[in-house]
Amino acid sequence: MRTPRVKSTFRLPADLTRQLADHARARRASQTAVLEAALESFLSPDGAERLEAALARRLDRISRDLGRLQWHVELGNETLALFIRFWLTSTAPLPDTAMKAAQAMGKERWERFVESLNRRMELGPRLRSEVSEEIGGTGDI
């Protein structure tokens, strides 16, 4: 048996009315059905538990994302440290007579490096995909 309906009239802010209409249209439901579901959810005794469960799922996802981000930062730091250590141990110091030419060449090489880095950041490929391909991974680093 269907519960009798009672007509209620109330006013909503214009922006909330637009959101309601958009949401109902996207769900292919009536605005009344959307409002009924929202009120039932808001007024139900287990509403807080469902909200807490949804929040817990979102926090879990954020924790996983932060873990991946931490891994990427550590990878970048270790890569840079390894490169610097290798460069310092394998590059002999220059004599003073060759210093100016080396600085000029270094400036030119730096500019090419920055251009290359910019192009790679915009278009790829990224180190992440190259590393995962080399170790036979799935790309989920």
Short description:
With about 140 residues, the chain is mainly alpha-helical. It has helices at about 15-25, 30-45, 45-90, 100-125, 125-135. Helix 1 (about 15-25) packs across helix 2 (about 30-45).
Keywords:
single chain; 141 residues; mainly alpha; 3 domains; 5 helices
Classify the helix fraction into a percent range: over 70%
Largest sheet features: none
Count of alpha and pi helical runs:
5
* Number of strand segments: 0
- Relative strand content: under 5%
Rg over CA atoms? 30 Å
Q: What is the molecular shape? A: elongated
Mean pLDDT: 88
**Count of discrete domains:** 3
Structural class: mainly alpha
- Give the low-pLDDT segments: none
Q: Could you tell me how far the N terminus lies from the C terminus, measured between alpha carbons in angstroms? A: 55 Å
The helix/strand series, from N terminus to C terminus, equals HHHHH
Model description:
- There is one protein chain.
- The protein is mainly α and 141 residues long.
- The chain has helices spanning 14-27, 31-43, 47-90, 99-123, 127-134.
- 74% of the residues lie in helices and 0% in strands.
- Helix 1 crosses helix 2.
- It has five helices and no strands.
- The mean pLDDT is 88.
- It folds into three domains: 14-43, no CATH class; 54-91; 94-141.
- The longest helix is centred in the middle third of the chain and has 44 residues, at 47-90.
- The radius of gyration is 30 Å and the shape is elongated.
